[in-house]
């Protein structure tokens, strides 16, 4: 007995001993002592031991460049896809409570199920490997039993209440926040439905809705002018008409340009015809896509004797957007996304956050594949300046995230606000300021300079009377924070750039309002501002022309 006690103190545990070679040997030794039959498999450069212990199937990954091994107990529970939010919340709750094992889940798209897994990072040593493994696996069995019981109780309570309110159940489990009121519960929205914008084919109905903000137009005639002239009169054929078919065939450009003349009416005014001209033209692209530009002009309606038509309807409206016909197959695009998604997760796990691309930062912690794919592609298109196409993907993600906002935490909420910002930016770029304003209102109060600048741009672009007061309020707050003139602390460079932006927007509004004296005084003060001097010179010249 004394010899056994002495053996415990004979060697100090050294991290240098816990390398991948020793860990593999120790794992084999410990599992043999536990009467487990081991099957070793290669996964890249790492070895993984698969074995059964007390009716449970386990795995141990011998990791490179780390002293720890990763014990896994896979498929400890499963649930239908509809319970995704419940499973996520329960995993989060258990991970907060556990100081060792970690819960994770995966999605089986083929069977539409959620599978739950347990992982335990272990530091082994040769003398105690049997005890360490035995204790760890016993702990995992215990955690599995508790998880299954909690999940069963959670689903049973929700089904009894006939309400799938995940936010409520998470509060009950955490016992930190009050229950939602019964009235709020009775006004819960219907179960979330994945909203799908067609993103592979760009058609006329989609363009009129997204780019021209005409949700319920009724087409009556479409004239197609290419090498010849053709007329369509069937509504469904007109709505489904694909722009790329004008220029592209067999994945190559067959012509450089084409024109469409559209006649349509609004269901609220079936007797008044409206007209639009759409010009489609080849543009420069890269090897993976054929790029072309769509430019549409919506003809204004004449004002009737009573002046009943809105200002928007009586003004011509032109929208232009650059789009691409992707030469890659659906599988190639899907493979790219899945690779980037998994790569993002791997980098997060290894602590390599700085090496993530902008698209990967957005999807790294996203669970649902459909949402992650829309976020990835939407961000990619946004960064390329392909705003119309970006909207189609980003709105798919928005409608899901918006409907489940109360169940979002941390980076998921940040993703939601980032999507709102990008959608606002894209619609602003297309000149659809009302829709841009809708999305940008979600970003108010987040104290992000980029969000605030885009919100102000939208207010100014749409001629909103609140823009000047909003800008003055921010300027006042910044002056209180930094002081005025030479007496205050100098703002950081990024804050100085923001302050300059506010003054440029303020000067622009003065000019728009015809307040030329105040505009001139402000613009002259901006001549000494390195961020605004070019703008000030151009605006002063424009102001001079207005006064002559």
TrEMBL record:
Database matches in Gene3D superfamilies:
Tetratricopeptide repeat domain
**Protein name per the record:** Tetratricopeptide repeat protein
Q: Which organism is it from?
A: Prevotella corporis
